[in-house]
Amino acid sequence: MRRINAEDGAAAVEFALVLPVLILLVFGIVEFGLVFNRWLSVTHAAREGVRTYSLTGDAAEGAAAGEASAPDLLGEISCVGTAPSVTQVRMECTTVYDLELLVFQTDLDIASTATMRKE
After folding, report:
1. How far is the C-alpha of 74 from the C-alpha of 47, rounded, in Å?
2. How far apart are the C-alpha atoms of 110 and 107, rounded to whole Å?
3. CA dihedral 98, 104, 106, 111 (to 10 degrees)
4. DSSP secondary structure code for residue 86 in this structure
5. How far apart are the C-alpha atoms of 1 and 85, rounded to whole Å?
6. In Å, how far are 10, 76, 78 from 2, measured between CA atoms?
7. What predicted TM-score, i.e. pTM, was given to this entire model?
8. Domain extents for the chain?
9. pLDDT in tens, 13-59
10. Strand ordering across the sheet containing 88-101
C-alpha cells in the first residue's frame, strides 16, 4: 500500500519541468542588464558628442568626441551630428548588440539622440 501513495520522485519531476523556465529567466535578467548598460553608454556618447559639437561647431569633432567617450564600444559605435535649426545641434549615436539568449539570437539596434542649443 505504501508504494501506491508514495510521491518520492514528484519533487524531482516538478524541478525538471520548472528548471528551464528558471534558467531562461535568470539569463534574461542578465542580458537585460547588459543591453541596458550598452544603452547607457550610447546615451552618454550622444550627450558628450552634442556637447562638443555645440561648443566647437564642428560635427566631425563632436562625433569623434562622442565615440571616444564610450571606450567599451570603440569600433562598435557610430555618431552623426546634424544641425536641425540655426540655434540647435543634434547628435545621434548607434550601435548593434548581438543578443544571444539560449535559443534566441538576434541583433538589437540601440540608438540615442541628444539635442542642444549652439553656444
Report:
1. 16
2. 9
3. -70
4. S
5. 85
6. 15, 64, 69
7. 0.81
8. 7-117
9. 899 999 999 998 999 899 999 999 999 999 999 999 999 999 999 99
10. 77-82, 88-101, 104-117
